[in-house]
Amino acid sequence: MSLMSLENLSVRRAGEVVLAPLSLRLEPGECVGLIGPNGAGKTTLMRAALGLIGASGTSALAALSPAARAARAAWLPQAREIVWPVSVAHLVGLGAAARGRPETHPSVAAALARLDLAPLAARQANALSGGEQARVLLARALAQDTPLILADEPLAGLDPAQAIRTMGLLAALAAEGRGVLASLHDLSLAARFCTRLIVLHRGRLVADGAPAAVLTDALLAEVFGIRCTRVATPEGLMLLPEGVIAR
Ligand SMILES: Nc1ncnc2c1ncn2[C@@H]1O[C@H](COP(=O)(O)OP(=O)(O)OP(=O)(O)O)[C@@H](O)[C@H]1O
Asked: Which residue ranges does the record assign to the ABC transporter domain (predicted)?
């Protein structure tokens, strides 16, 4: 059974099409990177898929009751600032509470452990650094213990080591049989860790497939307006943006 199923989903904002009709499915085991330049429609696609904003067409997730949707999909929004003066453990526990489970549910301790947050569990969440807060919010999403995770720029604000760890975690969750959809701007990490890339450009889906097949020089030039050097490393392909193509 598909974890996400969109049929002709589209969004208009202020009279403009910001997401042209698209159809796609996401299956268990897939770690899907959603890539595209700023303003391409990545956040819009994920929010519409979850039913958080009005859209035309259908999304199976958006059609679920709030309780059923909370059991199916966890959402990591782009905004990362934590303003509540509560402990990290309590905040991560809210992920379990979203499913009507107690904060003592094993999913909470598991999420804290997977993000190396046990040493910070008693700290006040709003007093953590930006990158630490980002990890706490991802842990809250994991504590929801859902088959599908949608994450809007999960690497934003993370140092290089944490970014690699986070992508490794998302890939591991997919390998365990969950589905992951994450918007990403780091094309090298997307190529290295994702099983599939979906590319949006000006609100349209322009490519969908295996990273090596999607990240062609022509696509990088046309969609991102960049020239890249490709470096083959033992860990996989690295794309080093060299310059901007005048358009
Ligand atoms: N409430 C709104 N009213 C009008 N236009 C909007 C609204 N929200 C988003 N848009 C427009 O929709 C387009 C897609 O925005 P979206 O946030 O989905 O892009 P994105 O790909 O997630 O970008 P980024 O990488 O910068 O986060 C943008 O052009 C944006 O200006």
From this structure: 4-227
pLDDT at 247 over 80: no
Reported ipTM: 0.97
* pLDDT in the model for residue 81: 86
Atom 28 of ligand 1 has which residue's CA nearest to it?
39
Structural domain of 102: 4-211
Ligand 1 mean position, distance from CA 10 (Å): 13
pLDDT digits (tens, 9 = 90+) for 31-77: 999 999 999 999 999 999 999 999 999 999 999 999 999 999 999 99
- Of all atoms in ligand 1, which is nearest to the CA of residue 14? 4
pTM equals 0.96
Does the CB atom of residue 230 touch ligand 1 within 6 A?
Answer: no
Number of domains in the chain: 1
Ligand 1, atom 17, lies closest to the CA of: 43
Residue 235 is assigned to a structural domain of this protein: no
Residue 45 belongs to some domain of the structure: yes
- Residue 16 in any domain: the answer is yes
Domain-embedded: residue 238? no
**Residue 42 CB less than 6 A away from ligand 1:** yes
**Ligand 1 atom at minimum distance from 78 CA:** 27
Where would I find the H helices in the chain?
42-50, 66-72, 88-97, 106-114, 130-143, 160-175, 187-193, 211-214, 217-219
- CA–CA distances in Å: residue 65 to residues 58, 68, 77, 159, 246: 14, 5, 20, 37, 48
